[in-house]
What does this fold into?
Amino acid sequence: MSESTQTPTSSRDVGMILQESEDNRPIIEAIEEDNPECSISHTPGLVRITAPGRLVVLQESVEEKLGREWETHEFQMSIVSYFGNIQEWDDDEIVIAWDH
Amino acid sequence: MTLAPEQKKTKKPKKLSMKARYEALTRGLDWEPSYVDKDEMFPHLDYEGIKIHDWAAWEDPFRLTIDAYCKYQAEKDKRLYAVLDGFAQGQGHLSLTDASYLNAMKIFLQGVTPLEYAAHRHFAYLARHFAGPGPRFAALCQSIDEIRHMQTEIHTLSNYNKLYSGMHNWPEHFDRVWYLSVPKSFFDDAMSCGPFEFLIAVGFSFEYLLTNLLFVPFMSGSSFNGDLPTMTFGFSAQSDESRHMTLGLEAIKFLLEQDEDNVELVQGWIDKWFWRSYRVTALVAQMLDYMLPRKVMSWKESFELYFEEQMLGGLFEDLAFYGIKPPRHVEDAIQEKELLSHQVYWTLYQFSFAAGFTTTMPSEEHLNWLSESYPDTFDTYFRPLWDKEAKNRENGGRHFAPGLPQLCQVCQVPMLFTEPGDPTTLCQRESEFEGEIYHTCSNGCQWIFEREPEKYRQAWLPVHQILAGNCGGPTVPDVLEWYGLQDGDAGEYLGSRDHQNWVAWQGEAAADTAAPSETKAGA
Amino acid sequence: MTIKSIGEYDFPSRSAQENYGDDQLVSVWFQNTMWFASPAMFRAPREMTWGDFKAQMFVPFAQEDPDYDPDAPRTWTLHGSPFEPEDGQTLSELGVRHKDVIGTRVAA
It folds into this structure.
């Protein structure tokens, strides 16, 4: 484990559950690369991605993997569930983290 | 979706940013009333005691606008209907693991679909009554989502209705059949609350805390049991659910931040609605452990992952900042995770003569899976019951209770739960209100009853109503007819209409693929 | 606490005794077997004798349990306390009220 400067409360796990599909595979890859501390588990049809404190989805990375334009609203097609708080859902990124 | 054109970088600046679009298309469409005052326009916002000082402080993390909403909802529907078509044309139902799997879907259609409709109605009410444009629009979207869920569930399962029992009369079942009064009374209870309590009840306690337990493992179960349409519908609905969870969480934070006096009210609602919602999930617990021919995860595992880890370990630590504590009686729920599904299925097994689904005894392999999944309880408390039933069946019996169960006045589940820490003693709680006695199944339900006895004494308890002669007549056949049940809907699965058809269809399929000289397998 | 509502809030119980005429609801709770998932509820005349209640309601239900022994001596409880009903006593004489729960187990 690396030294963390975060407070203990905000490093609690957050996570998201995505449908495991051909469409989502590049998105999942992008999330994996942008969140090096994340862990991934599978149940039939689903992928669960968790990470301590914070998970980010970056538009730029997803577009690169997909090879096309992708607006962050489109993430609604992929997400099945999440836990944490959606701190940011903007043009360029989606951030899930706890507030406190 | 179109491929990225070469000039994509130059196109982008023409669009408004999400923030600006949201300001213009959602917040910007609000207006100040001119010929009525605000209290007249929003008359239901004060009586619960919640204090709101600034509706503009409401955040919508999704920054949803109506054009984006419609675009993606349409896309979700297109995907779903493509799957439904393919499944119907390819006789997909034959690739289910077993026809008994559909018992879970029958309960889903009878018990959950009408809740979607009820949610649609009541979120429309919130969309009318909240004084801020942010929550009004979020509630409006959820209202439209919920009616879409109802419609897509009906369409998804109508494919099975052509061929299988138990799915032909669900709206009337919902109003009449005994176990369906559990979800029905839950939602009626919520709809008769004020707008803020409803939001905490359904938006937060049900959607954020517990729907993961309903949809996520269950839709994995559909995927694992060959039910592609339900899986697709489930994920399509669940993707809206993320938005609903956000609304629920945003609602609670908004109320807590608006005024310190709101904290105590909100805590009371969390305490009440956690337990009310949790009791409804009892039906889901048994579906996961008993109704899926191919198992995904046990109720216990699912409860630990989606509730204990994510909610108690994550969310409630966050809410502690506002002085919010984990729900009252949550310890009883945690203790029950070892017992819940077994006690509920044992009940449904012996009362399925009056149900819109069938039950059967778990196979040896299934019992072994239950032993492995519940090493601390299954062999001690539940396997002996099934061993006894196996002998009973060998002797030509089949355990159906020859009468009616006592019901809990609040959750309306039969009084099947046991004392915390003692799985062999049924839990009985008795309260008296204005000279009449009322029974509840648990500390949680008793606490809810005693907090608002004037509300719960009106409960339409199916058993009390049957015995009062209000359900078609005094005998079981009278009641079943009043329920609108048909031959093949209820009872034991083995030998039922669905089972016989299934064996015949699988036999035909086997015969079709076998070499011409071989004799027919099965059927 | 009282109900917070937008109008007067006073509605009767839907299970009140007057809905059952001369009868009342009575539940039987089998305390030393889990064979029956929950207590069973019956509608019985208040003036029904204990002997009739046993013969017409209790026994037909109880004997569905393959281990039910009609000759085994039983103990009974009412309102959580032991009581010893006599066959000739009526339910009302025994103090069984509307919606009461009668507990029973095979005597040790």
User: Anything to note?
Assistant: Chain C has a mean pLDDT of 96. The first strand of chain C starts at residue 23 and ends at 30. Helices of chain C lie at 50-62.
